[in-house]
Amino acid sequence: MCEYQNHTFPAGSAMYNGTDGKGHCYTAYCNLSCGTEIRSQPCNFTPPPTPGCLFLNPPRKNGETWRSNNCTTETCENGKHITTHVQCSVTNIVCENGQPPVKVYDENGCCFHYECKCVCGGWGDPHYVTFDGQYYSFQKNCTYVLVKEITPRHNFKVYIENVNCNPTGTVTCPKSLIVYYKNYTVILTQERGAKTVNKVYVNGSLVTTMFTNNDMTITNQGIEMRLTIPKIEAVVMFKGLLFSVDVPMTLFYGNTEGQCGTCDNNTKNDCRLKNGQISPSCSDMAYDWRVSVDNTPYCNGPPPPPPPPPSPSPSPTICVTSSLCEILNSEVFKECHKVINVHPFYEACKFDVCYTTVPMGCSSIEAYNLMCAEASICVDWRNATKGVCEYKCPDNKVYKPCGPTVVQTCNARYNEQFSQQCNAEGPQNKNCNSFGEGCFCPGGMTLFSSTSDVCVSSCCAGPDGKPKELGETWKIGCQECVCDKNTFSVVCKNVTCATQNPVKCTEGEVLVKKTVDCCVTPTCECNTNTCPLQPHCDVGFELKVNTPKDKCCPVYSCVPKDVCVFNNTEYKPGDDFRKSLCEQCLCTETKNSKMELNSYKCTEIQCLKSCDKGYEYTDVPGSCCGKCIRTSCVVYVSGVSSPVIIEPSQTWWSKDQCTKYDCVKVNNEFAVVVQNTTCPPFDPNNCIPGTEQKDASGCCKICVPPSPCKIHTNTTYLYINDCKSVEKVELTSCEGSCGASSSMYSAEANSMMHSCTCCQEMKTSEKEVQIKCANNTTKMYKYISVDQCGCKAAECKEHDCKDCEKKDGKLD
């Protein structure tokens, strides 16, 4: 930077540019070395171009504009680096609940606007303050809707359960808050008795001091239980007689209903009923938000009508104000008076002290102190009550009025996770700078873990995860550990082992190193893999194994079985086998003294080699005896004393030549094919005498049968003397047999009677033919032609019969 006349100029910028009015100009520049360069020249001299912002990284040209973030615009102008912020308009607002407004930045983080905090709370014999600051009292037991969304957007609602605090039932106290978010049900409650114990349940499971996941964080510091939901920036707190629900107006504006009213900075609609109408009294409205639960059947009926306004009492009761409530108006809360209106808390304190007990007024002071803490104002007020509102912490913890909301523990990973959440931007760091009263570990001590309530002076943990005292020792595996007094941490070292004597192993044993009490000890162990291999026993013997107690390796022996052995094959007594092809053996019960095996007896097999006719003895390979193999066909024929042997492909005929036997061999099988000749019927009377004979086979009789009487035709020339027919003519005649002739004695005639039939013409006709004679003359010639033949009985005289017989068969 360069200085001139109490002004600073960045490197590369012009510092002065003037003239003397006589045509001479003077200029001055702040160079890159932050030195001043003065130049003088005539005014008509053209000055060098205006330099850019070369001093920036990266260097920028003159007139260049850029954005380094969402909230600023940067420009290089005549060598000057000019930064222009986004213009924001901010409007101040007044919150009806009396709390200071909070800044809410836009998405870019450049500009903000003011919003009112939506904090609903209650305390004592319940006194309520709605989100918008409307104060009312409500003394009824059962469960009610404290906060719910009119239009579901974030799946968030809170119920409150009130119970009677005294036997008369006129005083009620908050017992628990039930928070519903997404799929979670979180119950913040107290068990009141001789000692009040805070209890937190998540989906029915009890959690201890701390619970955290991606959706929520729950802390429990003895006095206060706090549930934080970063995504919707909601905080729910429960301290027994004191509770509060804090939601951002940005996300819940105009969208809440229940006993906490509507979050919209307007008290006129805080007493909203279930049907959306506005009740003139928030105390009456509170009845309307009762809900039914399983464990309080007496609350499931219709809500009772609101009580009538009390009639003026003729002699009103005068309550003497306790000095306890005056603490609210004292110097103790001086700084908080500037921010939070104390009046409703003061009035509530007087009411509780007057109509219940003096200690009940502590809840009003506690509620006001909570509002102060929300405004980052720490007040140590309990000492001012002179023991009336004293809070006794467990013996291992001390009371602090302004302790951190999230406490550091011995778990470095947990601390780192919380630290990362605090360093990140967004609603998840809402608990980082907040504080509140509670029970904390004394100075010099640390909470052991987020899930325990143990304070330790050193962060030593044993193998069971529990804390260890300084100087305490324990053993983990093969290490001896101690909670070191110097480092306040766990120091472990290996166990010291004694020197071992040399060990010698026997057969089958191997030297191994065993860890006994974390020390390596050499010892001999039996390893059968190093023993001699078991022997292989011969056929007929079995392996016997014996392992002595004082030996590693087994002792093997081969003992004989109760069997015979031949050719490496075992046979039991009674089994037979062949020693050779013609030697049959039998295994006996007798022992062979040499081998200690059973002995066997063998006999020679005798073979029969004679075969029947048609068979031939043939040796069979692999068999002691051969067998008779058929070589011919054997036929047993009736009337033949011995069987007939027929060679393959040969034929044998019976004696009468009427039966044929063929021997056929197919696939080494022999078969006889028999064929019988069937002769046609034979009658010798139908034969021409002297023509009887055998046929070609020699089996059947045959003969020449006589021909029947019929016309026989002969086509030839007709010769008449020296003449010859011009053409051939058919000459017909009768030929054939007409049955047998007979000659038998007749007693009646007392003579021989002869009978015969002759083949002769029965019908004739006359035909004419042209003939030519030797003299070359022609003429017509008539001749007789037989038209029909037949057999006709001839009445022959005795002397004519022979002639008739001669003529039988042919007539001229």
Quick rundown:
The protein has 812 residues and is mainly β.
Poorly predicted sequence stretches spanning 5 or more consecutive residues: 309-316, 801-812
Number of strands: 58
- Report the C-alpha radius of gyration, rounded: 73 Å
Percent helix, as a range, is under 10%
Oligomeric state as shown:
single chain
Overall pLDDT score = 83
CATH class of the domain at 112-299: Alpha Beta
What is the third-level CATH name, the topology of the domain at 112-299?
Protein Transport Mog1p, Chain A
For the largest beta-sheet, the strand count, sense and barrel status come to: 8 strands, antiparallel
The coarse overall form would be elongated
- How far apart, in Å, are the first and last alpha carbons? 184 Å
Tell me the fraction of residues in β-strands, as a range. Answer: 35-45%
Domain VWFC: 458-525, 562-629
InterPro entries: Cys_knot_C (IPR006207), Mucin_vWF_Thrombospondin_sf (IPR050780), VWF/SSPO/ZAN-like_Cys-rich_dom (IPR014853), VWF_dom (IPR001007), VWF_type-D (IPR001846)
Keywords: Disulfide bond, Glycoprotein, Repeat
Domain VWFD: 118-300
Report on the architecture of this protein:
One of its GO terms (cellular component) is extracellular space. This is Intestinal mucin-like protein. Pfam families: C8, VWD. InterPro entries: Cys_knot_C, Mucin_vWF_Thrombospondin_sf, VWF/SSPO/ZAN-like_Cys-rich_dom, VWF_dom, VWF_type-D. Keywords: Disulfide bond, Glycoprotein, Repeat. With 812 residues, the protein is mainly beta. The protein has an 8-stranded antiparallel sheet. Strands 14, 15, 16, 17, 18, 19, 25 and 26 form an 8-stranded antiparallel sheet that branches. Strands 53, 54, 56, 57 and 58 form a 5-stranded antiparallel sheet that branches. The termini are far apart. The protein is built from 8 helices and 58 strands. Among the domains are: 84 residues, no CATH class; 188 residues, 3-Layer(aba) Sandwich (Protein Transport Mog1p, Chain A), CATH 3.40.1000; 41 residues, no CATH class; 81 residues, no CATH class; 98 residues, Cystine-knot cytokines (Cystine Knot Cytokines, subunit B, Ribbon). Helices cover 8% and strands 39% of the residues. The longest helix has 13 residues. Helix 5 runs antiparallel to helix 6. The C terminus is likely disordered.
